[in-house]
């Protein structure tokens, strides 16, 4: 085997033929082991699961390194041992070739269609621009289908948006899928997703950790996933470490998950098992509110439906809502026309002080247009059926709310009756 110092790095690592990379990989105890300086490099693989399918759909290849005395070296420390951009490009390519060799040698079912996620360093993306012939040559040489490779690029570390988009397009032309990694950290920008159009967006592990301890972060996570879906990409939540985080990931509508809770990295790719997702789904059926919250909302829903009955008997909105507004979490009641425009002022609870709201300029809602709100158009789409919105931050009272809504036929025409209920105190 050639030593690294003997490789022709002076002529630029970008021109290194595949043979110069593969000569740094030797068989050892049934595995492919890479050599870089004084380090021995090996591969571990962590499963990636589809929540909808409750099965493994891919594996991320992770670097494992040891010094000559056998002591372990962290992946970041191993990567940092490269001196200069040329060596960093060489080491990156060595790792990808190593991971691919070990993934193939592990064996798999004839019908296996799992993805192999391979990280590509920022230096490779920046220095190779639109073309990286090495990787196309590596895939052709190995006989591994490009459609089963997901190239992971650290989204926030590439400042040039055009360069990022070109890199994504380049790997796509090879036939690979592309994932933007660690979205939500550092310089992440949703515009990058719209412009680069990756196949998969991996949400930074900090987001799921924050969602476990913060209701606000928990509310934002599904919206972030929805944005990724609107951009045409799949959402993968990584770093899921316990059941609470797994349940949050499930309720966020994420497509894919990865983390210690489901399976730890191993030298042999795990092929079987659902990571406990089926049992998790049974225990944590997707719901917008907790069991206690749903039970308490039922009391409010019954009182709300009595308001609708009173309106049908020609009572005005204020007297019809008196009972409901006396309940502790009710904030206001109001009527919306079929065009989405609020008819008249909202009827507020007796102790409500509009001037005390953080959003006081938005309190007066007569004539406001709520046509795009789900509680309006869903009530119209399902006449006579009570609708309960997802939790949201009310622009009227600056509190987390749900809105009950119901169509009611009045003498003046069809109306949507609404009631805002503050969630604080229900959870």
What's the short story on this structure?
The protein is α/β, with parallel strands linked by helices and 427 residues long. 35% of the residues lie in helices and 25% in strands.
Description:
- GO terms for molecular function: cyclic-guanylate-specific phosphodiesterase activity.
- It is a single chain.
- The protein is an alpha/beta fold and 427 residues long.
- The chain folds into 2 domains: 4-283, Alpha-Beta Barrel (TIM Barrel); 291-422, Beta-Lactamase.
- It is built from 14 helices and 17 strands.
- The protein has helices at residues 18-22, 75-80, 84-105, 122-128, 133-142, 161-174, 190-196, 205-213, 215-230, 243-251, 277-283, 291-312, 317-325, 374-381; strands at residues 25-28, 31-36, 39-50, 55-66, 72-73, 115-120, 149-154, 177-183, 200-203, 234-237, 256-257, 330-337, 342-348, 387-388, 392-393, 400-410, 413-422.
- Strand 10, helix 10 (243-251) and strand 11 form a beta-alpha-beta unit.
- 37% of the residues are buried.
- The model is unreliable at 1-14 (pLDDT under 50).
């Amino acid at each position: 085997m050639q030593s690294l110092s003997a490789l022709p790095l002076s002529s630029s690592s970008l021109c290194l033929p595949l043979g110069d990379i593969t000569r740094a990989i030797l068989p050892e105890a049934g595995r492919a082991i890479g050599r870089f300086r004084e380090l021995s490099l090996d591969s571990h693989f962590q499963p990636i699961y589809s929540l909808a399918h409750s099965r493994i759909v891919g594996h991320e290849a992770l670097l494992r390194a040891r010094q000559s005395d056998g002591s372990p070296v962290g992946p970041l420390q191993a990567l940092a041992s490269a001196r200069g951009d040329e060596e960093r490009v060489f080491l990156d390519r060595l790792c990808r070739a190593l991971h691919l060799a070990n993934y193939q040698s592990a064996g798999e079912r004839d019908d296996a269609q799992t993805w192999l996620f391979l990280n590509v360093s920022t230096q490779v993306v920046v220095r190779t621009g639109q073309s990286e012939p090495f990787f196309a040559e590596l895939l052709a040489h190995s006989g591994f289908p490009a459609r089963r490779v997901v190239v992971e690029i650290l989204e926030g570390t590439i400042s040039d948006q055009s360069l990022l988009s070109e890199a994504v397009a380049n790997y796509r032309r090879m036939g690979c899928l592309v994932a933007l990694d660690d979205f939500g950290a550092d310089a992440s920008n949703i515009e990058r997703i719209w412009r680069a159009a990756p196949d998969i967006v991996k949400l930074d592990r900090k987001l799921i950790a924050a969602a476990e301890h913060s209701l606000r972060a928990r509310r934002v996570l599904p919206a972030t996933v929805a944005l990724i879906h609107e951009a045409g990409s799949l959402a993968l939540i990584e770093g899921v470490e316990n059941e609470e985080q797994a349940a949050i990931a499930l309720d966020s509508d994420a497509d894919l998950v990865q983390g210690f809770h489901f399976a730890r990295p191993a030298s042999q790719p795990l092929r079987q098992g659902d990571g406990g997702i089926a049992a998790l789904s049974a225990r944590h059926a997707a719901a917008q509110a907790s069991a206690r919250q749903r039970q308490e909302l039922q009391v409010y829903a019954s009182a709300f439906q009595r308001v609708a009955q009173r309106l049908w008997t020609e009572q005005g909105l204020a007297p019809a809502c008196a009972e409901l507004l006396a309940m502790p979490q009710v904030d206001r009641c109001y009527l919306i026309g079929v065009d989405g425009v609020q008819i008249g002022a909202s009827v507020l609870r007796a102790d409500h002080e509009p001037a005390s709201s953080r959003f006081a300029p938005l309190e007066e809602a007569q004539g406001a247009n709520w046509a795009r709100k789900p509680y309006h158009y869903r009530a119209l789409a399902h006449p006579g059926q009570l609708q309960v919105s997802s939790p949201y931050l009310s622009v009227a009272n600056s509190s987390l709310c749900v809105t009950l809504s119901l169509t009611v036929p009045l003498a003046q025409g069809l109306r949507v009756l609404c009631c805002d209920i503050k969630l604080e105190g229900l959870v």
